[in-house]
Design a protein that fits this description.
- The protein is of the alpha+beta class.
- The protein is built from twelve helices and 26 strands.
- Strands 1, 4, 5, 6, 8, 10, 11, 12 and 14 form a nine-stranded mixed β-sheet that branches.
- Helix 4 (about 260-275) packs across helix 6 and helix 9 runs parallel beside helix 12 (about 520-535).
- The chain is globular.
């Protein structure tokens, strides 16, 4: 008998596709002008079946993934995001107060506090106490190619020139609908977990700061290669997967103007469309039977651009790079998925608390505390993924005179705050802006436990070393938990979090650490307390609450109209360019033709195995084998899909050995990524 009920759901969260500033690179001229990939919210609900005597719920007798209760084309005649069309009580089988949690991974740059609050408000209106801030995790993949303007905090709406109500509504409505569909889909099922390593999909873009860490030997390659996969199945049939892996959503560059889920969006697309064969129309209706989420981890200093320390690559084509890095994540996750045999079992528990990070005293370190939020001037220097102001350099500790203008125009930080943030040169004291802070300071912290797995949901971008130290702090309080997963960009967004040693370097990540040098120790302290409460069952009431800023938002002007007309003498539907005469087919056989080498280990050790990678062979339908066709457009090699500034086929950046090049429609993605588990 299954210990849990599991449900999966998916819904569209694509915002305005024309004339809206994009969220990620913070460049005012980067405005949406079309769609490369649609954005999706993928929801997973797991509930404890311990409520004996209550009839099992809605999933029974309903086709897998059918989105039972959601009429085809749902949304017609229904308020967007209301969840209408999904029967109330669809989660029957679990008492209203029964243990459950919902995890959402959305193709967004961040989950802002505005989105978190409105999603919870709508869920409460529909389900009462079933889904709350304590048991609902909203996380983002951190794509830099989505429309912005969906925050209620001023700083995050500067590049969009204000709040975008239509984009905000699309995001909130889509997330709510995805959770409603997952709730309606609940049925007895199993969860299994597997862990491994993926190399060749990330590189450290801030090496000088990373090398300051005394514990840097934990990551010999200066990356966090860990990948953790949760596999969801019912009656032996897989219905969903969540893969956590740390790499930035910056394969698409800061000159791109097409909405895109970036590399993680492509990984999900490959699995859901290429391997599971789900049509786009069925996916939009919440149908299809399988949901694949590629969630984000501690990716603060992890770049998918494998050349020049995160500056470019692996090829000179951003569409090809998106495909390559996404495909490598999908392949690695698929192998872990197929080999997952460790059954998750045990109770579901969760704790959450709002904490004011402007004034936390760190225990055990005299004088150590956090301060009101300040963005350092190094923030404007940018990163290897996207350079910023040419006259500000990473690690520059002398304050530029230009920032004195912000003192006069916006707010001047008191000397005490300036000293508290040292050695950070103050750029803008966002936490002191009036009438309300320009960035959030009261933040939600959350720990979810399901059996031997714990999920740490944090509202920021943690570097690999800060994420490691935070996981260790939580693991110390939960000795019987074997897997601690870090879920970044969750429930709110308050910049970066680096180690104190990395902070002293004042590169982009350290300058973007809002609350000073002791930000990470404060997170460790607060999350350790939450984890202890999960273990003991103690309540964790919040002493503070985030400010309600919906009434203070400033709507942006209407998006500029994007010309959408045909040239003289043409009509919509005319063939502009004939396709290539043939395309290549690539088949993926799982498991690989050469069996993975497996090492017998003690029960307490994790599985150790190596992958021989995908093989090209005749295929059968998924899950045994899948066949997909790559065209020149799909591989990012057509002239239409080249980045701006690449004239025809005459300009080509040499690809590193073994990686994809745009010389042929059927070029591969180089050697299979190495996949191994540390012993």
């Amino acid at each position: 008998m299954s210990e849990y009920l599991v449900g999966v759901g998916i819904a569209d969260v694509t915002g305005e596709a024309g004339g809206v500033g994009m969220m990620g690179y913070a460049l005012p001229y980067q405005r949406t002008a079309g769609i490369h990939q649609r954005q999706w919210a993928r929801a997973f609900v797991v509930a404890d079946r311990s409520g004996a005597g209550v009839p099992l719920g809605s999933g029974a007798g309903v086709p897998l993934g059918s989105g039972a209760g959601v009429p085809l084309g749902s949304g017609a005649g229904v308020p967007l995001g209301s969840g209408a069309g999904v029967p109330l009580g669809s989660g029957a089988g679990v008492p209203p107060g029964g243990r459950r949690f919902a995890f959402v991974s959305a193709d967004l740059g961040m989950i802002f506090a505005s989105v978190h609050a409105e999603v919870l408000r709508r869920l409460a209106a529909r389900y009462g106490p079933r889904y709350t801030a304590e048991n609902t995790v909203l996380s983002a993949t951190h794509t830099h190619s989505g429309p912005g303007g969906f925050s209620h905090h001023t700083l995050y709406n500067l590049s969009t020139f204000g709040f975008r109500p239509r984009t905000f509504e699309a995001i909130v409505a889509g997330i709510v609908t995805a959770i409603c569909r997952a709730d309606a889909d609940l049925a007895p099922g199993t969860v299994t977990v597997n862990t491994g390593e993926l190399h060749g999909a990330s590189v450290n873009r801030s090496l000088p700061a990373f090398r300051r860490n005394p514990d840097r030997a934990a990551f010999p390659a200066a990356i966090d290669p860990a990948m953790t996969v949760l596999r969801f199945a019912r009656d032996g049939v897989p219905v969903g997967v969540i893969s956590w892996f740390a790499t930035h959503g910056t394969s698409m560059t800061n000159t791109n103007t097409l909405i895109s889920g970036d590399n993680k969006g492509y990984a999900a697309y490959l699995w859901e469309h290429g391997w599971a064969g789900i049509p786009q129309a069925a996916k939009a209706r919440g149908e299809g039977g399988f949901v694949a989420a590629f969630a984000q981890g501690n990716a603060g200093d992890m770049s998918p651009n494998l050349g020049a320390g995160g500056g470019y690559g692996p090829t000179g084509n951003e569409f090809a790079n998106t495909r390559i890095v996404g495909e490598r994540q999908a392949v690695a996750a698929r192998e872990l998925f197929e080999a997952a045999t460790e059954v998750v079992c045990g109770p579901i528990a969760h704790r959450q608390r709002y904490v004011d990070f402007s004034c936390i005293e760190v225990n055990g370190v005299p004088g150590a505390r956090t301060w009101p939020a300040v963005i350092g001037q190094g923030f404007t220097a940018g990163t290897q993924d996207g350079r910023g102001l040419p006259f500000i350099h990473p690690g520059q500790l002398r304050r530029s005179r230009i920032f004195r203008l912000l003192d006069a125009a916006v707010v001047r930080a008191p000397d005490e705050v300036v000293a508290g943030h040292a050695p950070k040169p103050v750029g803008l004291a966002t936490g002191l802006c009036r009438p309300h802070p320009w960035t959030p300071q009261v933040l939600p912290l959350q720990v979810i436990r399901i059996g031997q797995v714990a999920i740490v949901a944090a509202p920021g971008e943690f570097t690999i070393m800060s994420g490691r130290r935070l996981r260790q702090a939580v693991a110390a309080q939960l000795p019987d938990v074997a897997h601690v997963i870090f879920a970044g960009y969750a429930n709110a967004y308050a910049g970066y979090v680096v180690t104190p040693e990395e902070y002293d370097a004042q590169h982009y990540e350290g300058a973007s650490t809002h609350f000073g040098r002791w930000t990470l120790p404060a997170y460790q302290q607060e999350f350790a307390a939450l984890a202890a409460a999960v273990r003991t069952g103690e309540p964790t009431p919040s002493a503070v609450a985030p400010a309600h800023l919906a009434g203070r938002r400033r709507p942006a002007r209407a998006a500029g109209r994007v010309l959408d007309a045909v040239p003289p003498g043409r009509r919509f539907g005319d063939v502009v360019r004939q396709p290539l005469p043939a395309t290549g087919a690539v088949s993926w056989r799982w498991p690989p033709s050469t069996p993975a080498a497996r090492t017998t280990t003690p029960a307490t050790a994790r599985r150790t195995w190596r992958s021989s990678g995908p093989t090209e062979t005749a295929g059968r339908p998924w899950p045994a084998t899948t066949t997909g066709t790559r065209s020149s457009v799909g591989s990012g090699c057509s002239p239409a899909s080249r980045p701006r500034g690449s004239p025809g086929g005459s300009r080509r950046t040499p690809s590193p050995a073994g990686t994809a090049s745009c010389t042929t429609a059927t070029s591969g993605t180089g050697p299979a990524p190495s996949l191994r588990t540390p012993v």
